[in-house]
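Quick one, tokens below:
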């Protein structure tokens, strides 16, 4: 376990939104009452240019987090130090509250799939991802948040549950958890396990952020598209999570067929009501 523990640059609270390019101008013109924004790390890893100028303008008015898909923490490939160097430079520039990535792999032999691929839940995979997280945390000088995956298959080699695997990784690294409730619900339905038991098994002091999004029902399995409003079963599971973990900062994600800003804001307002103690969105 890495002995280094780092503090975030600024705290976040409440129900935030994922920043999307379609909404830059609306945000600049209207300064909406949003408590924080999440930026996709890979969109801003440059030395200059309009996206970075816009990111700095958002950061001047709101706390932010950085969320990425490129660390490939579960791969047997060495960490991509060029990627991490660019991420560190971006983080030093924008001072996010958190930097997060996924319990998944996206590369093999330095070829990138551009997809978040699942891991077998075995001790060897646990050691590999823990080593990568420790290396990344030491290089970045920050404690990472790692996100639970959505999945559509399981490995016959797996000898522990996903929640046990995640708990061991958190223990081995000192990193913290970005709990994606939509991903959890999708995986629970696809594989037939109890999402409530999964939540109960997580270390309660490690859940630092929550994601909510929409899935697609493909008549036989659920597909994590992040292209719909949050569905009722996910809202119900979210309420249970908030009852267990408290008012954890929560983000609305919407990645495909991105709607008008006010649609996203209405979703975040539903989450905020639950965070504020109301019984239904």
């Amino acid at each position: 376990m890495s002995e280094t523990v780092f503090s975030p640059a600024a705290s976040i609270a409440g129900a935030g939104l994922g920043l999307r390019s379609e909404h830059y101008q609306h945000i600049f013109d209207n300064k909406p009452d949003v408590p924080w924004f999440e930026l996709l790390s890979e969109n801003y890893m440059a030395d200059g240019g309009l996206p970075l100028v816009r990111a700095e303008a958002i950061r001047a008015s709101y706390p932010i987090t950085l969320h990425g898909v490129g660390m490939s923490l579960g791969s047997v490939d060495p960490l991509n130090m060029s990627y991490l160097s660019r991420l560190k430079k971006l983080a030093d520039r924008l001072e996010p509250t958190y930097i997060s990535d996924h319990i998944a792999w996206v590369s093999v032999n330095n070829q990138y799939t551009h997809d978040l691929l699942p891991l077998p839940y075995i001790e060897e995979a646990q050691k590999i991802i823990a080593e990568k997280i420790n290396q990344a945390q030491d290089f970045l000088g920050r404690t990472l948040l790692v996100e639970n995956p959505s999945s559509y298959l399981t490995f016959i080699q797996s000898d522990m549950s996903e929640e046990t695997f995640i708990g061991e990784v958190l223990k081995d690294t000192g990193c913290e958890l970005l709990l994606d409730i939509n991903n959890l619900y999708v995986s629970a339905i696809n594989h037939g396990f109890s999402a409530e038991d999964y939540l109960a098994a997580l270390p309660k002091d490690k859940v630092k952020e929550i994601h909510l999004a929409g899935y697609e029902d493909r008549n036989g399995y659920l597909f994590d598209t992040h292209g719909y409003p949050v569905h009722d079963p996910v809202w119900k599971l979210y309420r249970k999570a908030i009852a267990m973990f408290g008012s954890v900062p929560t983000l609305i994600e919407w990645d495909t067929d991105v709607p008008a800003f006010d649609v996203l804001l209405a979703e975040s307002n539903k989450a905020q009501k639950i965070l504020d103690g109301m019984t239904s969105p």
